[in-house]
Amino acid sequence: MVFTLAGVGLLMNVLCLGISFTLFSFTLETTGGTGAESDIAKNLTVESRLVGTHTVEYIEETVTETEYVYVVKSVPVELRNFINLEELEKWLHDREDTNIVRFQQTDKVLDCDDFAFELQRKALEDGYITSFEIIGRSEYNELFKTTMPLEQSLHAINLAIIGNNVYYIEPQTDEIVLAAYMD
């Protein structure tokens, strides 16, 4: 009886491992034993046939695939003018504390408009409204401490509105000048 269970166990292991065969038979032989058990075990033959295997069946059919893509969107900032001149000065000062490294292409010249666009972009990122302005040499020389060279007729700067006051900002030096009163 012990050998019969061992034989069935061996057969189950073979089936579980997926070894394929069509007809399998073996005879259990015993040594010793008593009485009828010994006679039955000596003449026992186990035959089996593989009924099923571990098969993978591939069925070709069109499948509509839904793919979920998670996109991080930047939330638009509520844009506003500076509240007062102190806020503008503090923002410009804080911007100075950030080091900017520029890798310039050899065929491109970094000039005033690049600085003005950079200041405008930074203001927008921080939620402030500034504009890009072009100013003539005579007006620039009247308002700012530094003077424009004679060979340069125009200069790019930024403009900020605080209340009813319009201020020009020199993006290369962060100098602020009162340009006009609106009311």
Quick rundown:
By secondary structure, this protein is of the alpha+beta class.
Shape: elongated
Q: For the report, how would you describe the main beta sheet?
A: 4 strands, antiparallel
Strand/helix succession: HEHEHHEHEEE
Helix tally equals 5
Q: Regarding quaternary structure, how should these chains be classified?
A: single chain
First CA to last CA: what distance?
A: 111 Å
Q: Unreliable segments (pLDDT under 50, ≥5 consecutive)?
A: 19-26
Class by helix and strand content?
alpha+beta
Write the layout of secondary structure elements.
Blueprint: H1 2-16, E1 24-27, H2 35-42, E2 45-48, H3 85-96, H4 112-125, E3 131-136, H5 137-143, E4 154-162, E5 165-170, E6 175-181
Antiparallel strand pairs: 1-2, 3-4, 4-5, 5-6
Describe it for me?
There is one protein chain. By secondary structure, this protein is α+β, with helices and mostly antiparallel strands. The chain has two domains: 2-48, no CATH class; 85-181, no CATH class. It has five helices and six strands, in the order αβαβααβαβββ. A four-stranded antiparallel sheet has the order 3-4-5-6. Strands 1-2 form a two-stranded antiparallel ribbon. It is elongated, with a radius of gyration of 44 Å. The model is unreliable at 19-26 (pLDDT under 50).
Task: Fill in the keyword field for this structure.
single chain; 183 residues; alpha+beta; 4-stranded antiparallel sheet; two-stranded antiparallel sheet; 5 helices; 20% strand; elongated
